[in-house]
Amino acid sequence: MHGCVFALLLIDLRCIHTIHSVHYKIPEEQSEGTVIGILITKLPSTLRESLPNLRFRSLHDEEIIFFFLNATTSELSIRQRIDRETVCPNLLTVDNVVSSNTLRRVEDNDRCELSFRVNILRLNNISVDIVNMIRVYVEVEDIDDNKCTFLPKERQDIYIKENVNFTKVTLNKPVDLDTNRSNNLIRTKFRLVPMETTTDAPLPTMPVRKKYLETWNNTFQLNITETPSQVAPFNLELWINRPLDYEIRQEYAMRLFAGGRKPNRTCALFIMVHVEDENDHKPMFEKKSVHLKLMENASTLHPIYVPKAHDGDAGPVHKTMLFELSSLSANSIRATFYVVSTNGSIYLRHPLRHSQQSQYKLTLVVRNPEPLITSKSTNLYFDGGTRLTEAADLFDTMDVLIDVIDVNDNSPIIEIYSINGSTLLTLTEHLDVSVTDFAVVSVTDDDSQNNGQVTCMLDDKSMQSFRLTRIGPKRADENGNDQTGLNGALYKLSAVHAFDRESTTTVDFAIICHDHGQPSRRTNSTATVVILDVNDHAPQFSSNRLHVQVIEDSDPSRKVNDYFVLQVNATDLDSGNNSRIRYLLKPDNISKDLFLIESYTGILRSKGNLDREQNSTLHIEVMAVDNGQPEQSNSVLIDVQILDYNDEAPEFLQAIYEFQVQENVVQGYHVGTVVACDRDSGENAVLNFHLKDATSDISESAEYRFENHLLPFRIMSHYVPESQCYAVRLFTSGPIDRESLLPNNYMKSDNPNWILQTHFPQISSTIATPKYELELMAEDKGLPRQTNVVKIVTYVTDVNDEKPKFLLPRVEHRSTVLSRYEPRRFEILKVFAVDEDEGQNGTVQYYLESLDAYDLTTNADELRRCKTEGLRQRPVTKQLRINLREYFELNSTTGLLSLSTELPDRLVGLTLQLNVLAKDIGMVVSLESVMHVCITITDSPPQHANGTMVGRLRYASQQRTMFYVYIFTAILVFGLLIAAVFVLFGYFCWHHPKSRKNRQVIKIIRYNEAEGNLITSEADRMHTTHKTNVDNMAAIPLAYSWPMEETAGTQTANFHSTFRYNSTNPQDSHPADGSRLPVGHGHTDIQSLLPTADRVGYLCSPFEHMPNQSMYYTLANAHAVNYSSETPYVGYCEAT
């Protein structure tokens, strides 16, 4: 409610001299509605005196949301619960801590204080004054409402390398959001307790526990230092005073407890110390060297040796041993052997060959894996733990000696190559047999001694064409066979007869070789001899003459196909370059200009200019030539028939056709002939014709009066074989109206004076000869369709068939007024008519056909007919006995109607109807039109600025005369009225000297027929009269309007409302029996409620009420008198 009052009052802004501050202290977490204090008690006594008129308004400060201020009592209470750690920005919350080792430092000011402003308003009668402003400070005091915790989490994993003498590790920070020292952590509450396992199981008791605790206490120590932070007042460090041995114990678990004064506010940090293994033991081989004998065909799938080694370290990394070949090993050793790194197994990469190397020496190395981190610094792990690492590199070596034992495991290897060293063996066809050595056969065997001795021969089929001969030193074995003194053998290969390549392109042969080992190993080798070609054949075509049909190059698909005609193909029985054929055109003018051929594909193409209309058939000759030496050639004749493509549009013999036709000619009249041709053939030369209006896209402003579908023309076409063209005849198919082709440029204006300011030239003098602009489109039946359009202009000559049409004055301006004081030559109006015919047929002249005067003072509606159909009333021209034509003059050329002389006074008030005739001057027949113009002659001042002085004087004199007549008439009427009053008064006094005693005649009250009720002034007079004559009357009279709907039964709705006249009691709604007067159909229901017989009565007679009557009522009588006095006095009511 107070808010509404403040919104409606005007606030008076004045200077605020002082701003008071009010301070409160409250504990945090108080419930809603808790009262903090009353502001008025903190104010000066001068302000407290006007407490009922004071109002307290808090401003929209951010921290007011926590409080509620009563505007009247100034009571300040808590609106919502306040958490000190949430609302104060200088406190550290758990959400603000990240996984780092540092915490945000708090500000030096540890007070949590909320402030807001309050306006003190004083209520006046019409405004509100701001008398002062208060700043309220509410300090939120801390309570022990938060439990301590370790940040960033309550578990910490520490990684320590073994054999480190002393180590310090920073522990997670204990944090308590309560900043009050009494509510925060206490130093004496920190306890470091050992645990046996990570599952928090209790330690075993007695000797084991005692020994473990002694070792643990000597090893681990908690160091506590204070910090300036109020929420994290201590830094904690774990000191490791003695070296740890991974091989003795890998993990140490412990808990660090922290808390304050309340037991339920304690927290714990679980600490797990992980001892990391250090590489402090060297891996060792059990043997320093071994000697192995290995067959050369040993498998590569099984290890040839597996060494044994051990390492004294127990860690998962440093107890791991890796085996490898020494980095000093030769590349041949590494290419032959490889070592499995996990167990040292030695494998062969490929089988050994005694012939290549008979002994190998390997050096094996065993070591621990290289550490991932080699720097001696503390590093952070992703799990939040801390790890200390350092590098180590300890290893051991051993030697492995391997002897390779030879076995007969190699078969003879046969290599065949030509004399020049190529692996391709060739023989030229038809070569002389005496020089037929063409290849060398080399046979090798990697085995030693007899295992490497080889003997070779040809198979039976190959001996028919070739001969194999050993070359080099020879020796005979015990069987008499030739053998070489070294391992392997060398042979030459010769042909025993000549070859024909066209019958045999290649010849195969086979060589068989075997060694002399036990068991013997055999090798078979096959080879192919390629017979080289000699150019002894010419190219050949499949036919000596070819026929092809191709569409002319104007077809778009020809370009898409790159103008392909055909592809010729010739064959040559030779091979290589001897069979490689190139194609060329036999030179002539036609082939050179129209065709080209691809040399090596034989594709014949046109150059894009094949035109059937120029050459329908062509003959070209294509030659095929091989690349042999000497060249061989042949040719083929190609007949090319060019097919038609619809690339020729129809052509008209003339660029434009002009014809002439007279309007209104009969339908079917031949206007002219158009000739069209098409150079294509077949369906491409069959034409269809379409006729349309060439002005169909003309602007709408031209307003042409015909549309395309109403063109009065049609066409007929027929083919003329002699000329191979079409003759298209143009005929009329409907009425030809020249005037319908004229643009509708009649001007319009709403200004009536425009008729005197606008000049219209003759239409025929500004419009070119009307014409039909047609377009004849010729379209062939080919694909794609080809069209052409020619313009046909048909001029239409004129016939006098149009009547003149009146444009001015417009229909609404054909009735005007004219002052009789206008001067001679005064321009009354201008008529203008147009004739859309041409020349003399369109030249219009104007005439006054008739001129009559009419008296229209009693028939104003008759004047409207003058604009259209003319006046029907009889003229009064004959009664005037004047010649009206002598007053008006109409220019036959310009149509200007003017006064030829001044108008007489007798024409004032009369209306003159002028029938203006517009007629052309056609040679054969003349057409005409009539227009009615009405001019009303008035006695008004002249409109024209050049009115004559005589006219102005006459008008002024008449005005003065009329003024005198009006004054004289007023004086005369006033005198007659006064005389009539005296006569009536004397008459009344003479004939009714005693009526004032017996009949108190009351003043006449007039009934307003138009409104159906009494005039107010008359009703007042009626009551006044009643009061002055009450002693002479039998009852109180009352006259008032009677609703018309209550008299519907008497059918008096057309006679205005009726009256009820109650002379006895105005409130009597139930008159005595027999008190109603008889009323018939069409009578006014005037009812008189009569008193009983012993009272003063009335003598009443009915009366008849006629339409359009004047009705008068008095308290003593009632009568109805007709205006025309045709109805006698028929009734009255008067007091007896």
Automatic annotation (TrEMBL):
UniProt xrefs under Gene3D superfamilies: Cadherins
Name by which UniProt lists this protein: Protocadherin-11 Y-linked
Keywords: Calcium, Cell adhesion, Glycoprotein, Membrane, Repeat, Signal, Transmembrane, Transmembrane helix
Lineage of the organism: Eukaryota, Metazoa, Spiralia, Lophotrochozoa, Platyhelminthes
Cleavable signal peptide: 1-21
TM ranges: 963-990
Superkingdom classification of source: Eukaryota
Subcellular localization, as worded in the UniProt entry: Membrane
Domain called Cadherin: residue spans: 175-285, 286-414, 435-541, 542-652, 653-806, 828-939
UniProt KW Glycoprotein keyword: yes
GO biological process, one term: homophilic cell adhesion via plasma membrane adhesion molecules
Membrane topology reported for the UniProt record: Single-pass membrane protein
GO-annotated molecular function: calcium ion binding
GO cellular component: plasma membrane
Species name: Paragonimus heterotremus
Biased composition (Polar residues): 1059-1068
Ranges where the record places region Disordered: 1059-1085
Stored CDD domains: Cadherin_repeat (cd11304)
